[in-house]
Amino acid sequence: MQIITYAIAASASSAAIAKDDGFFVTAEVAAGQDVVPADIIENGIDQDRIAGAFESDVRLGYDLGPLLLDFGADMALYPEDSRFNRYAFGPGIRADFPLDENEATKLRLGAEYQYVLGEDGRVFDRPRAEAQLIHRHSKEHVTTARLRFGFRNQSEDRFTGFDQSEWLAELRHNWRPEGGPTSVNLSLLGLKHDADDNRFSYTGYGFRLVGSTPLAEKLTGLARISVVQRDYEDDFSQLYPVNRSDTHIRATAGLDYQAWDRVSIFAEAGYVSNASNIPVRDFDGFVGRLGLRFTFED
Question: What is the mean pLDDT of the segment spanning 127-131?
Fold first, then answer.
């Protein structure tokens, strides 16, 4: 379970796949290594921010056409350090409102609530609401403008000052050559997080590029790259009395193989870099995972 603040929220591989007017379930299990949660603050200079993990993700939902209801439960276990273990769950709702007769333009409203536990109890909970304006130019091109607001209510038992409002603005364009299965998504991103303690507040901007294409009858190739700059508003700590500034780069490529009717095997690997002027937040290394995905539609 990688909780990525700028979306980047849930990864595309774990998104629920639904059809109109029906019940759906997706379940995913994976093993690999990734960046650990950011809400553990340690003493000392040597800190490993990438670790091995076992992950699972389950989504249950019902699609009513313009209205979609779902409930998700995620788990991430870090064998090297159980302090990073996370258990998350919560409901979501999404509604579409056509704005013209041919439904080329629509307004999409959504809301969700997430409750996250660690081994020692609640880590945080977070309500979110968003609006998207989606316009389909043709069978090849779709443009989406998106605005999302959330509030992260952090457990005070861990440390104080991390409660924060979270704004995300995204302008996304999707291109499907000749309306076919190949897809390219380019997003421009703007972020604003306002925390109780200004050392956790930041303004960010960046982009994300995601592509997928069939490689064989049951094999799909995937690639993602994102670059986000975050500039913080106050000194990081007494040991590092400067405003933190990070450039986060993540690039991965992978394969998705439809092994059976409802089961696919996926693998992805890549590189992540977080270049920071704060040594304990400067890291880079290999990330990757291998897993199974089950999909059921009624």
Answer: 98
Query: Each residue of 37-61: b (16+ CB within 10 Å) or e?
Result: bebeeeeeeeeebbeebbbbbbbbb
Burial class of 174 by CB neighbour count within 10 A (0 to 12, 13 to 18, 19+) = middle
Closest by CA to 184, choosing from 207, 213, 216, 214, is 213
Contacts with 35 (C-beta within 8 Å, 6 or more apart), sequence order = 2, 49, 50, 272, 274, 283, 287
Six token digits for residue 256: 């998705």
Task: Please identify which residue in the block is written with the tokens 């998504």.
Answer: 185
> Above 60 in pLDDT, residue 6?
no
- The CATH homologous superfamily to which domain 12-297 belongs is monomeric porin ompg (2.40.160.40)
3-class DSSP state of 36: coil
* Distance of alpha carbon 169 from alpha carbon 6, whole angstroms: 9
CA distance 248 to 35: 11
Q: Could you tell me the pTM of the whole model?
A: 0.87
Angle at 84 (CA atoms; ends 116, 226), nearest 5 degrees? 85
**Is 87 exposed, middle or buried, given 0-12, 13-18 or 19+ CB atoms closer than 10 A?**
middle
Domain range summary for the chain, segments of one domain joined by +: 12-297
Q: Is the dihedral of CA 150, 151, 155, 160 positive or negative?
A: positive
Query: Which of the 8 DSSP states describes residue 9?
Result: S
The mean pLDDT value of the chain amounts to 89
Residue showing tokens 């913080």? 232
